[in-house]
Amino acid sequence: MPNFDASQINHWIFDLDNTLYSGDAAFFSQIDKKMTLFISDYLGLEPLDARKIQKQYLAEYGTSLSGLMAVHGMDPAPFLDFVHDVDLSPLTPCNELPKAIEALEGKKYIFTNGSKKHAENVGTHLGVFHLFDGVYGIEDVNYIPKPQRSPYIKFCDVFDIDPDKAIMFEDSVRNLEVPKFMGMETVLVTSNADWHHEPKETRPASATTDAPWVDHKTSDLSAWLRDNT
Ligand SMILES: [Mg+2]
User: Fold this and answer.
1) What is the rounded CA–CA span in Å between residue 198 and residue 188?
2) Number of domains observed in the structure of the chain
3) Which end of the chain is more exposed for a tag (fewer CB within 10 A), N or C?
């Protein structure tokens, strides 16, 4: 792991789900289940078959939504509204995260494969939304998700980000490959939850996840920010 010098960073980029809150929280499973329900209804499939399609598209297209749009020409808006309409109470806000993010010098962003509205709901609940200078959701990148290259390029373009002076935090190891290639520093946020039911390439990172494009790893985002900045 390379040494980290926070004074070299002007742009702090955070994924949302399972990154700004721990993947250990029993929260994201609600979204996951609502996706299955929506797909089951939309394609007229039994839940088990809908789930197979959901995970297959997630692996192949970056998000299940992108696969549904590409293969079935689905309208994204009703899907996003439905799957992000979830109970926020399993997410316990902690004081550490707002403090740590507020203390960062430079601009701060949320860059999510979810909707902007979802970022606002979750970010507000966690007490951090007002601290960000920009929020990019899937609708801002023509529904082309990370880990594809084009959304990162567009994101950096719009916010005038020099990747050599940027750092990205993600729980998905495949979503850090392009940022590293572009010149960003990368931090993988891991969890202790059991994700073995997820396809290998899309499951959130655990402590044993590794890749050559990962510079740093932490299971505690607030602590990492506090200790390294
Ligand atoms: Mg994530």
Assistant:
1) 18
2) 2
3) N
